Amino acid sequence: MIHRLYTWTLSLAEHPRALWALAIVAFIESSFFPIPPDIMLIPMILAARSQAFRIALVAVVASVAGGLFGYAIGAFAFESIGQPILASLGKESSMAAFNDKFNAYGTWAVLIAGVTPFPFKVITIMSGWTGMALVPFVLSALVARALRFFAVALLLYYFGPPIRRFIERHLGLVFTAFVLILGAGFFAVRYL
User: Transmembrane residues, as ranges (predicted)?
Assistant: First the structure.
């Protein structure tokens, strides 16, 4: 099933209305779809490198809008969708504690999930469920998604096809390592 979705999503990059398809995929990925928009973003930019930053901008705007939809799912449909999922995972008793922790560090969670391979939809839904303030949510989602998609666009614009394999295999890990190093730096400054 996932492989078919992946193949279908990748095929949309060649469609005449690929920019619209990218917007739709970026939107739904931020709220419920399992395939990230990078699958379309990379071949689209390689096919039209002069349009790299326009393509990245479409992905950012649509992803943040989809994040707002995920936020709404968490805020307004948590009882019917989110809570049964958490209960099936045995997390029902720890939801209140999670709520307090998430609200204390929610902006960081959105930033980290927005640039790393962690599923962004999980954080968007949890942001709505925990009642994270909307403005910090939107701003952190905007910064995170812009960093992620414009980094891909910048690399592809300047280095073209040779950098594709690096992006597909290692960029998520590079972002994750960056976040870990940044977190370690904050920890060292605060506690050491």
Answer: 18-35, 55-81, 102-120, 132-159, 171-189
